[in-house]
């Protein structure tokens, strides 16, 4: 990761470490159940959760896997998560950069990364690293917000995410993720895209402290072109933005070296 981008991530996530443990978006049980269902982890599996944040995925996996390594770039975040999950004995916590993982090749049966890759300056390095640390026929499950395929909607989406959170780098399009998987011998086994409804006030306050900054994001939504308002299901009530929806991508890929 570029040093400046890394510093931004560490600042934002240190400041908001408890918000990510408590976030309704991040601890959604149906998501966590789907991860277990798609991966079917077993006690013999060694797993890695990259950019674990509040540790929700690591905790879910720890109930099924032998050992899970929970990594995050932000030590404060990881320390807080370790305290929060202190009853789970089979989770190891490692401060690590998603683009330079401190693990040997072919180390893990399962790798996960949820609602984080849009913070990574170099997605291709991230996916290279995932492919490297996975065992042959190992599985990687990713969930992340994705940009629409249409360029104007892609620009609109990434612009408001950056306004609301300066540690946001870029949400990729699904077509871009598919190309990265292909280039790293990761075969798609299952995927889906869904709309994720977001409560605007909670979402905007999670990273922005100043009312003026929050209002600027709200105005950007209110001035959105009709196509963007429709695509992102922007709803207003009494002149205030109440909610919107973004595209979320869930995918499982399997490593095949030959």
From TrEMBL:
GO molecular function terms noted in the UniProt entry: S-adenosylmethionine-dependent methyltransferase activity
Pfam families: Methyltransf_11
Superkingdom assignment: Bacteria
Keywords, in A-Z order: Methyltransferase, Transferase, Ubiquinone
GO biological process: methylation
Domain Methyltransferase type per the UniProt entry, residue ranges: 48-141
Record keyword Methyltransferase present: yes
Keyword Lipid metabolism found: no
InterPro entries: Diverse_substrate_MTase (IPR051052), Methyltransf_11 (IPR013216), SAM-dependent_MTases_sf (IPR029063)
Family under the similarity heading: Belongs to the methyltransferase superfamily.
Protein name: Ubiquinone/menaquinone biosynthesis C-methylase UbiE
Species this chain originates from: Halobacillus aidingensis
């Amino acid at each position: 990761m570029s040093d400046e981008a890394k510093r931004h991530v560490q600042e934002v996530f240190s400041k908001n470490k408890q918000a990510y443990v408590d976030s309704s978006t991040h601890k959604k049980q149906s998501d966590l159940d789907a991860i277990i269902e798609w991966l079917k982890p077993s006690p013999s599996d060694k797993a890695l959760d990259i950019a674990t944040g509040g540790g929700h995925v690591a905790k879910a996996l720890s109930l099924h896997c032998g050992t899970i390594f929970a990594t995050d770039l932000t030590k404060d975040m990881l320390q807080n998560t370790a305290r929060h999950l202190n009853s789970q004995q089979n989770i190891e916590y490692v401060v690590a950069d998603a683009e330079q993982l401190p693990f040997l090749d072919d180390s893990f049966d399962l790798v996960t990364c949820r609602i984080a890759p849009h913070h990574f300056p170099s997605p291709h390095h991230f996916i290279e690293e995932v492919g490297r640390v996975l065992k042959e026929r190992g599985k990687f499950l990713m969930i992340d917000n994705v940009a629409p395929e249409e360029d104007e909607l892609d620009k609109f989406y990434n612009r408001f995410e950056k306004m609301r959170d300066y540690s946001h780098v870029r949400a990729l399009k699904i077509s871009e993720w598919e190309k990265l998987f292909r280039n790293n011998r990761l075969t798609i086994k299952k995927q889906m895209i869904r709309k994720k409804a977001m409560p605007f006030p909670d979402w905007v306050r999670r990273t922005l402290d100043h009312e003026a900054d929050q209002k600027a994001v709200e105005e950007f939504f209110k001035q959105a072109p009709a196509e963007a308002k429709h695509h992102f299901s922007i709803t207003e009530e009494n002149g205030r933005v109440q909610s919107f929806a973004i595209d979320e991508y869930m995918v499982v890929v399997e490593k095949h070296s030959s």
